[in-house]
Amino acid sequence: MTFGLTVSVGQGGGWHRPGMRHLFTALAMLLALVASPALAQVTMAFHSFNGSLFGGRYPHTFIVLAGSLADGTVVNENYGYTAKSASPAVLAGPVEHAILAEKPKYLTTTNRHFTVPISDTQYRRIRDEVAKWRDAPGKAYRLDENNCVHFVGRMAELAGLKVDYPKSLIRKPKAWLNRVTGLNPQLGAKVIK
Fold it and tell me: Average pLDDT in the 105-109 region?
């Protein structure tokens, strides 16, 4: 980012007049602050997918992390929790689990419910939590007790959001995220129909 500043040093003192040097110094500091990586920001967006009988996808929810950290590191990631393979065994559970990243093309076909800014510290906690879910031993995916809704709910909690898990919404990611929207009016988000 480049900023230009023209100073005229003609008669009348120009920038040498009392106070002008301080004004220019303050302006330069302000411009440096605006361009500073300290103002970098990562956001976490919460998505759902309605499911598609023809597309072979079940209803799902996941998070998208985007932006940049204070050190300038660019963030462009997404994570969802799922059963490693879709089979009737999922109904009986538990089954093997996986953390999946969605392809960019797929992201445009999902419902984006709301987005929240997160700090670098929250980002690192979220990444640690993703690793914890990914590396959990054994068969950890249970359709009604430990699914994508529970995973995204934990990420929402790490971002400071209020979350609950009504039994009637555990298999309905879109309806569940609409409920989270209602539990957090400070988001200013709208319910997705």
Answer: 88
Q: Which of 169, 171, 167, 193 is nearest to 179 (CA)?
A: 169
Contact 72, 61 (CB under 8 A): no
For 130, residues 6+ apart whose C-beta sits below 8 A from its C-beta are 79, 99, 155
Strand order in the sheet with 42-49: 97-100, 74-83, 60-68, 42-49, 111-118
> What are the domain boundaries of the chain?
11-39, 41-185
More confident residue, 11 or 137: 137
- Average per-residue pLDDT for the chain: 85
Residues 6+ apart with CB under 8 A from 58: 51, 86
In this predicted structure, the answer to whether residue 5 has a pLDDT above a threshold of 50 is: no
